[in-house]
Amino acid sequence: MTQRGAVFIGPTIINLDFPAPEQDILPGVRWGRIEAFPSPAYWAYQILARRLEVNAVNYKLGRTLKEEVGACLLGGHGIPAAIGLAAFNKLKDCGAFDAQPPSEATLYEWLSEPIKTGNKSVRYRFARQKSRYLSVALNRLDVEMPPTDSGRALRDWLTSIPGIGHKTASWIARNWLCADDVAILDIHILRAGLLAGFFPGDLTVERDYLKLEQIFLEFSEAMGVKASELDALIWYEMQASSSTVFSLIENMRGQPLAKLRPRSSRAKNRQSGTSQTTFQF
User: What is the pLDDT of residue 254?
Assistant: First the structure.
């Protein structure tokens, strides 16, 4: 038995077939139902449906590697995305990523000023710390040529810079090289992995980043999708559905994923032995 998802794009109907819910995608990890958020089958369906509907995603935030490092270093770690991007755009307008890197004091001065985001002005958190990290990174990029033959090579080089950990370095490498040999792991990806069963419960992003990354890369390969696509999709949906995620975490304590309530209705074709779920795009 297989399961089928139908994608409606205008007048066109495209059927997508997936392995049966009880089949394993990895040893001990079932595909689950395509409508059961956040099962492996759900993520596979969503990625393939988006491929049919939209163009390829451009992950880059900057025009140069200096700008990409700046954009990613100024974001994350408790900094709302809008504020991180606003800080990056402010520094870019000030010339922070030009040929001659500014001093740490100058970067701190710029980051300490109010930053406009939308209709309000805000203060950037960690201005002193981030100005120090950014100063070191920009000066390093000014005198060294980082390896760009693979995402992992660039990531490993970036982690030698103070203030850039595995997550930020992987984010930069994924964006700049469209790399699929690294993964951007945070609490949203970790929760998705715990709920779907492909991450063990005794590993943490802080202590076991590389172990979790290897599992994630094997998971995406078994699914037949790019790690960069899967990472971006999971992050977006998990952070946008926080209340649902927290409810699932509570409901999942001691229960298998198959007991999750599906998020859409299912229809079963008794003649073909295929269950079908339809989504409108």
Answer: 55
Residues designated catalytic: 167, 186
Tell me: pLDDT of 4 over 80.
Answer: yes
Task: Read off the pLDDT of residues 246-280 as tens digits, 9 standing for 90 and up.
Answer: 888 777 665 444 333 333 333 334 333 444 433 33
**Regarding the domain with residue range 65-177, which homologous superfamily does it belong to in the CATH classification?**
Hypothetical protein; domain 2 (1.10.340.30)
Q: How far is CA 99 from the centre of its chain?
A: 30
Handedness of CA 132, 69, 95, 112 (dihedral sign): negative
pLDDT confidence band for 55 (50 / 70 / 90): low
Q: Where do you find CATH 1.10.340.30 in the chain?
A: 65-177
Cross-strand bridge partners of residue 267: 276
Helix, strand, or coil (residue 2)? strand
Cα Rg for the chain, rounded, in angstroms?
21
Strands 267-269 and 274-280, by their bridges, are: antiparallel
| CB-facing half-sphere around the CA of 92: CA atoms within 13 A | 18
